[in-house]
Write a structure and sequence with these properties.
The protein is an alpha+beta fold. The protein is about 55% helix and about 10% strand. It has four domains: about 100 residues, Hydrophobic Seed Protein, CATH 1.10.110; about 160 residues, Beta Polymerase, domain 2 (2-Layer Sandwich), CATH 3.30.460; about 170 residues, Hypothetical protein af1432, CATH 1.10.3210; about 55 residues.
Length: about 500
């Protein structure tokens, strides 16, 4: 069952060179990275030490410091752990931090911002989920060992104690070795870890995608056996992890893991359903594999959208989800998926709503799914000016996204066919630019507005004004700009013919 995932994982990792680093070197690297990125960390440690508290950089922050990710130029948050209780942490941050948030205080976390960098300081703790509860039970601890054991993965269970004379690297669960071997493993057993917090199953897939690391067979088996547990996690938390996975460097790794372990059936069931279908454009290639390829090709074209783009990636992932419901097998053995873009847009909207994505994301992704076949509906490049205007009008502010998605949707291995499709789309983009230079193509409106229509027809606001506006818009799309004089003539003709019917 998991052969596909394990095979892909082994191929992906074959080209990665494991890093080799000693604990002393790790401490030095992490300390230097932290000092360069957030010089205030030394001052923060001194404040806690003077009050006889310990504080350590912890979790993903230590991992990223060792990997040099603080040098990427991206803004990164910092996580610390301490034996100080939340109310004591707040006192130490008051008048030192630029701002403070207490929203996570009941879970032991006080958040703050210092010099533009967000930090979270959490009291040593352990947490577990009751079998049917979506809220963890949090218990504060008094030593860092217990805190580290409760963490999700060994690469996130390392700490850099800052209140000692020299920063002390703490690695009780061989996280550094796993970092060297590019391996995702749990400090406790995978079953125990995922039972404590089922979201960690999805986090394993997310980290595999973000870091390009492999996961242990124990994790794969535990996810497979425990996938039902994810249903106790809130939609918002699942959405956030899925977003990080999809926006990662290698989303195929994580998506393959959650599909092969059946986890996707609980949180994104539309994707594994694609494995059962055959795409009529790509003989004997299932739609699932086609979808992952489209996602990767869309990512490769994201420079056209100024970098990683959630709207595009979600649209690429969901663009064919309407195929299972529209699949029809004809007598000659051919498969068709008529109107799958319409059905897919509806399915996409429903799924993203269940995952609590915001309305803007939902509407834009659904629209791209609905439009993703529009290019193929215009034949082999015989685009009239009217067709170009309608294509631009329908895409609206998603035109550039649609350009990228449409190009990414070509996964044929036929070199000649792929070249012809690319050439045809080049021609379409050129036509758009030509018309853009001649007309206000991005803001297609009738030559007369609503007030002018009412004045010319001598009518008050009513349904008739909207019908007249739509008629003039159709003329504009079909013929281009008419000018107010001709538009007035056409409006009066239309009114004379249609007034008795309205």
């Amino acid at each position: 069952m998991l052969t596909l995932y394990l095979l892909y994982q082994s191929l992906a990792l074959a080209f990665m060179k494991p890093m080799r680093i000693t604990r002393a070197a790790a401490a030095s690297l992490a300390s230097e990275s932290l000092r360069n990125y957030a010089p205030f960390a030394t001052e923060l440690a001194e404040r806690f030490a003077k009050s006889n508290y310990q504080i350590a950089l912890v979790g993903g922050s230590v991992r990223d410091a060792i990997l040099g990710r603080f040098n990427s130029g991206a803004q990164m948050d910092l996580d610390f752990t301490t034996n100080a209780k939340p109310e004591e942490t707040k006192k130490l941050l008051t008048k030192w931090a630029d701002s403070i948030w207490e929203t996570g205080a009941r879970f032991g976390t006080i958040a703050a911002n210092k010099n533009g960098i967000n930090i979270e300081i959490t009291t040593y703790r352990s947490e577990i989920y009751e079998p049917n509860s979506r809220n963890p039970q949090v218990n504060f601890g008094d030593n860092i060992a217990t805190d580290l054991k409760r963490r999700d993965f060994t690469i996130n269970a390392m700490a850099l104690e800052l209140t000692t004379d020299t920063p002390e690297f703490i690695d009780l669960y061989e996280g550094l070795t796993d970092l060297e071997n590019q391996l995702i493993r749990t400090p406790a057993s995978a079953t125990e870890s995922f039972d404590d917090d089922p979201l960690r199953m999805l986090r394993a897939a997310r980290f595999a995608s973000q870091l390009g690391f492999s996961v242990t067979p124990e994790i794969v088996k535990a996810i497979t056996d425990m996938s039902d547990r994810i249903t106790i996690i809130s939609a918002e938390r699942i959405r956030d992890e899925l977003t990080k996975l999809i926006m990662s460097a290698k989303p195929r790794l994580g998506l393959t893991l959650i599909v092969e372990t059946k986890l996707a059936e609980k949180i994104l069931p539309e994707i594994p359903k694609l494995k059962l279908e055959i795409d009529e454009h790509h003989h004997h290639k299932d739609v699932y594999e086609h979808t992952l390829t489209v996602l990767e090709q869309a990512i490769a074209l994201e420079h056209r959208l100024s970098g990683p783009n959630l709207i595009l990636r979600l649209a690429a992932l969901m663009h064919d989800v309407g195929k299972p419901k529209t699949r029809v097998l004809s007598g000659d053995g051919r498969v068709s998926f008529h109107h799958h873009e319409v059905v897919g847009a509806r399915i996409t909207k429903e799924r993203l709503m269940k995952l609590r994505f915001d309305s803007d994301v939902i509407e834009k992704v659904s629209k791209l799914v609905y439009l993703h076949l529009r290019f193929h509906g215009y034949g082999d490049g015989e685009w009239t000016d009217s067709a170009v205007r309608r294509y631009v009008r329908d895409a609206g502010d998603l035109l550039d996204h649609l350009h990228v998605l449409t190009r990414a949707d070509c996964t044929t291995r036929n070199v000649k066919k792929a070249a012809n499709l690319a050439k045809t789309y080049d021609q379409l983009e050129n036509r758009i630019e030509q018309l853009r230079a001649q007309e206000e193509l991005d803001q297609i409106r009738p030559d007369l507005d609503g007030n002018q229509i009412m004045q010319i027809l001598k009518i008050k606001p009513s349904k008739s004004v909207g019908l007249a506006y739509e008629y003039l818009l159709e003329l504009r799309l079909e013929n281009g700009p008419l000018g107010q004089e001709r538009a007035t003539e056409e409006l009066l003709k239309w009114w004379s013919s249609n007034q008795p019917k309205i």
